[in-house]
Each structure stands twice: as C-alpha cells, then as structure tokens.
Amino acid sequence: MRQIVLLRGINLAGRNRVSMPALRELLTGDGLQDVRTYVQSGNVVLCSDSPPEVLARECERRIASGLGMEVDVVVRTRDELAAVVERNPLGEVAVNPKRYQVSFLSSGLDADTVGRLAKLAVSSERFVAIGRELYAWHPEGVARSKLWAALAGRGLGVTATARNWSTVTTLLAMSSE
C-alpha cells in the first residue's frame, strides 16, 4: 500500500538536519519499499503493508536509532491524502498554494481546541477543521499569524505537521505514480 510519511520539524533553522539520501536509505528495507523523498522538509512516499499508525511509530524508531534524534511522524495512505485534496474546503479563496497550509494531525481535535484556533484567525485568514486535517489560508503569510503560530506549535495536544498546498498536491501525484 502506498503511504505518505510526514516528518515534523526537520531541516528548519539549522536544527534536526537530515539528508534525504540518508533518510531514504534508513527507511528502505524490512517491508518498506519504493522509498522516495520530496524536498528537504521530510516528505516521504513509500510502500508498506503496515497500518499508518504502526508505520509512523516504526519510522520514528528507525530515525531515533539510525540518526539519534527524536522526530514526530504522521502518516497518511494515498487514499487518505486523495480525500484531503478532494475536500479542499478553501479552494475558492486560497489563490496562492504556498500560503494555503494543511496541518496533518495524529488524531482529531476536540471542539474546544478547534474553537480556540478559529478565534485566532484574523479577518483575512480562513480556517477549517475536518477530521485529522486543519486547512488554513494565510493570505498575508505566516510570519505574524497567531493562527499559524498555534498550528505550528506543540500546544495542540496531538502530533501535527503542516505542508503547503503545492507540497500536498505533489505528494499525492507522487503517491499515484
């Protein structure tokens, strides 16, 4: 089964440096096949028969033992990622794919947390929570966005990692090949 492995917080501001060739080598074998990476931010497409939650823990274990760093991992199947793209709840307003973010969560958020996040969006921003994904449109960019700071931080109570819409659609295309 084709799956997408998303690493949280690597190769950002000089910390958690991971080379993509080393990551591909580390994740190849023992049931993980056809391992491919996309850009330097920890996007991996591979084949595995393991359920996504089991695969996430296995990748975390391999990274910890092989690279000596603790990295959170979120996994989606190809079909789950296709559903994320198909939903595209902000497609009509999000005209710049680099400012349109999807946060992938290890599990859904409670209604109070979703409400707190929605209140952080300024008038030009849009925010939609659907299941284990949070869609956010930041037309002014993320640099000063309180919503983005909350989405990117560790205060959600679940593992979360975000990708811009260009990356999301590219990963779907890679997983469909």
Tell me what the structure shows.
- The longest helix has 16 residues, at 52-67.
- The protein is globular.
- Strand 6 and strand 7 (133-137) form a beta hairpin.
- The model has no long low-confidence stretch (mean pLDDT 94).
- It has a four-stranded antiparallel beta sheet with strand order 2-3-1-4, with helices on both faces.
- By secondary structure, the protein is of the alpha+beta class.
- It contains six helices and eight strands, in the order βαββαβαβαββαβα.
- It starts with a strand and ends with a helix.
- The chain folds into two domains: 2-78, SP0830-like domains (Alpha-Beta Plaits); 87-176, Alpha-Beta Plaits (2-Layer Sandwich), CATH 3.30.70.
- It has helices at 20-27, 52-67, 78-87, 111-120, 146-152, 165-176; strands at residues 2-7, 33-38, 43-47, 73-77, 100-105, 126-130, 133-137, 160-164.
Number of helices: 6
Strand content: 15-25%
Termini separation (Å)? Answer: 12 Å
Order of helices and strands: EHEEHEHEHEEHEH
Contiguous runs where pLDDT drops below 50 for at least 5 residues: none
The total domain count is: 2
- In spatial order, strands of the major sheet run 2-3-1-4
